[in-house]
Amino acid sequence: MHDEIGDVLYDYGRGLYANITNRCPCRCEFCIRTMTDSLGSADSLWLKREPSVSEVIDMLADWDLSKYDELVFCGYGEPMERLEDLLAIAKYVKENTHLKIRINTNGLSDLINRRETAPELADIVDTISVSLNQCSAAKYEALCHPSFGEDAFDAILHFTKEVQKYVPKVAMSVVNVIPQEDVDACRKIAADLGVTLRVR
Ligand code: SF4
Predict the structure, then answer these.
(1) Which among 9, 109, 116, 173 is least surrounded, fewest beta carbons within 10 Å?
(2) Other C-beta atoms within 10 Å of 200: how many?
(3) Residue 141 C-alpha to ligand 1 middle, in angstroms?
């Protein structure tokens, strides 16, 4: 199945990662997809096709999960592009394994799915990390080129505020490619939203 689809599950540190889509509404200038095809134990995170929910569950059932603490949805694409499928896989994992569920997201789920999506994560997702990336709508658009234009930034802030009602651990992050004054401004935005900011 690996040859036919590509690397869906891969090791990275203490986490088991799930790469379920290559779709993404952004073109971030620092995106790792533009620098390398592989990460952790994966040979290539470019999928030949998206795996179905049952294919991912079969892969998880065959994988030795004993050395991991969590399943992280994060790959060469935005996992919330497949929100319903992600939740179906996560629900299986919650009900059948000891793993916690984390999502690394660009925070654009509401615009991608055209609805308020934070409530759908309740009781399934344990941790979510939202990429803030820049400190204003214009700077975000210039760095990440979202297909939603300048609406993207406010949508990220709104999602981060709302998702704290449903997910126990929420954090934001920036990549260390922006000036320190912008990192400081991002730190303040995150603090005003009630979450910590990680520089990665
Ligand atoms: S949101 Fe993530 S996957 Fe999409 S372009 Fe930016 S860094 Fe890459």
Answers:
(1) 116
(2) 8
(3) 13
Convert 74-97 to b/e letters by CB count within 10 Å (16 or more is b): bbbbbbbbbbebbbbbbebbbeeb
d(CA 144, CA 29): 6
pTM of the shown model: 0.94
User: Cβ of 48: how many Cβ atoms within 10 Å?
Assistant: 11
Token readout for 10 is 């891969």
Residue 12, H or E segment: strand 9-12
Q: Which helix (H) or strand (E) holds 189?
A: helix 180-193
Mutate to test the pocket of ligand 1, among 39, 74, 78 (most ligand atoms within 8 A of CB): 78
Q: How far apart are CA 124 and CA 92, in angstroms?
A: 10
β-pair type (15-18, 9-12): antiparallel
Least confident of 5-9, 18-22, 92-96, 149-153: 5-9
Question: What residue's CA is closest to ligand 1, atom 8?
Answer: 31
Contact 9, 15 (CB under 8 A): no
157-168 pLDDT tens trace: 999 999 999 999
